[in-house]
């Protein structure tokens, strides 16, 4: 399936000079949605995964689907102040700003194998922060999955040492 045909470019969003990769056309098509989930799941064959971490907010779309198929738990990583229980935090820099992510302090147990999933790997700041959060809790990041990797932004360099898989690369 040509997944790229379901991604549209939105110029100057969220700020001038940025070309946003909009995945909503892919999400709107039930066959493309199912096949995308299957392709992302294929990246994990023969892997032991205890938890799937989804990154706020579009990482929440496929991460729970992957967790269910892998018979693993789903862990949301959210922007600061959005989780109701005791959290662990990590600051990060992304392509158009700064932020802080949080994870519940009891979400991952020491030694658990963790798949990190987000929609886009851009500059790598968000994914790097998520991996640090997982490791703060004693988890082992076994792979970082993305729907899209924007290779020209060099985000994979910040994830040096972690296996990275992306369905689409630009």
From TrEMBL:
Q: What is the lineage of its organism?
A: Bacteria, Pseudomonadati, Bacteroidota, Flavobacteriia, Flavobacteriales
Q: Name one GO biological process term.
A: adenine salvage
Q: What is this protein called?
A: Adenine phosphoribosyltransferase
- Where is it mainly found? cytoplasm
Q: What species is this protein from? A: Flagellimonas zhangzhouensis
How is this protein annotated for GO cellular component?
A: cytoplasm
The kind of enzyme this is, by top-level EC class, is: transferase
Q: Does the keyword Transferase apply?
A: yes
State the pathway, as annotated in the record: Purine metabolism; AMP biosynthesis via salvage pathway; AMP from adenine: step 1/1
Enzymatic reactions:
AMP + diphosphate = 5-phospho-alpha-D-ribose 1-diphosphate + adenine
Q: Domain Phosphoribosyltransferase, which positions? A: 46-148
Q: Where in the cell is it found?
A: Cytoplasm
Q: Which family does it belong to?
A: Belongs to the purine/pyrimidine phosphoribosyltransferase family.
Among PANTHER family, the record links this protein to: ADENINE PHOSPHORIBOSYLTRANSFERASE (PTHR32315:SF3)
The EC number(s) given in the record are 2.4.2.7
Q: Which function does this protein serve?
A: Catalyzes a salvage reaction resulting in the formation of AMP, that is energically less costly than de novo synthesis.
Self-association and partners? Homodimer.
Q: Which InterPro entries match?
A: Ade_phspho_trans (IPR005764), PRTase-like (IPR029057), PRTase_dom (IPR000836), UPRTase/APRTase (IPR050054)
Q: What Gene Ontology molecular-function terms does this entry list? A: adenine binding; adenine phosphoribosyltransferase activity; AMP binding
Which keywords fit this entry according to its UniProt record? Cytoplasm, Glycosyltransferase, Purine salvage, Transferase
Q: Which Pfam families match?
A: Pribosyltran
